[in-house]
Amino acid sequence: MKMLLIVAMLSVVGLVVAHFALAARFAAGTDAAIRRLIAAQTSAPPDEAAIPSLALAFAARNGGQPGGPATMTITQKAEMKLAPGQDWLPIEATQISGTRDPGFVWQARGRMAAIIPVVVVDGYVAGEGWLEARLAGSVPVANSRGADVSRGEAMRFLAELAWNPDAIVNSAGLTWRQVDERTVEVALQTEGGPARVRLGFDADGDVVSMEADDRPRAVGDQNIATRWIGRFSGYARFGNYRLPRFGEVAWVLPEGEFVYWRGEIVTAEPARQ
């Protein structure tokens, strides 16, 4: 009996040690990705003549400027769903985004069933995209990588330019097209092909929507090209920036819209490096 107790105790200790080791490795990998993102912000600004006046005016009015900060950090209070019909998962998140070389690292923390901690990291750095989720920061529950994922994460970067106005006038590699008087398309070449997103502006020149026709959506072991939309509202001041405080993102499925993320920006400022 005593031997069984000793074995059980050693097993528990082993599990605890393994948990902390895996969590530390996961955190270290995320920190390394952030360092790579920051180090990549060296590209020269693009020719402003190639950027539609609608986008240039938005950037100037909302704090974006040529030669501005190389990275931007925002914090979010939000909620997300992993699948239609599931309960909302409250999360708090921090995202650092590049303004020269397109990229971001998003870290979110929440509790499933109000008990089990979950950590999600979504990123696009140096042309590579990934999404990884772990229970308690150690037990893997999702790990998506590959060309389709990279294209999808590049689309996310483009869709969130309303929260990163410096990137509009400083990001290298973006190509722009005026669609109509209130819509511009912005694109980025990726290993999975071109990532394209349309940004919609209201009569005042603020970005209020985004959409893409074919963002890859994970369905089992496949990625299905799916219509993807988002909405921005509640523009407010964050230091030198004027940004939409609220946003929501949805997949357009055959049965209707599936809003899987909605939340608000809490803080927004140039990243301290």
- Distance between termini? 56 Å
Strand portion, in percent? over 45%
CATH architecture designation = Clam
CATH superfamily (homologous) name? Lipoprotein localisation LolA/LolB/LppX
Number of domains: 1
* Uncertain runs: 7-20
Count the E strands.
13
Q: Mean of residue pLDDT?
A: 89
Write down the secondary-structure element order. HHEEEEEEHHEEEEEEE
Overview of this structure, please?
With 273 residues, this protein is α+β, with helices and mostly antiparallel strands. The chain has one domain: Lipoprotein localisation LolA/LolB/LppX (outer membrane lipoprotein receptor (LolB), chain A), CATH 2.50.20.10. Helix content is 24%, strand content 50%. The protein has helices at 2-39, 53-61, 147-159, 165-170, and strands spanning 71-80, 89-98, 104-112, 116-125, 128-135, 139-145, 174-180, 183-190, 193-201, 207-219, 222-238, 241-253, 256-270. A 13-stranded antiparallel β-sheet has the order 6-5-4-3-2-1-13-12-11-10-9-8-7, with helices on both faces. A hairpin with a 2-residue loop joins strand 10 and strand 11 (222-238). It starts with a helix and ends with a strand.
Question: What is the element layout, followed by pairings?
Answer:
Layout (H helix, E strand, L loop, with lengths): L1 H38 L13 H9 L9 E10 L8 E10 L5 E9 L3 E10 L2 E8 L3 E7 L1 H13 L5 H6 L3 E7 L2 E8 L2 E9 L5 E13 L2 E17 L2 E13 L2 E15 L3
Antiparallel strand pairs: 1-2, 1-13, 2-3, 3-4, 4-5, 5-6, 7-8, 8-9, 9-10, 10-11, 11-12, 12-13
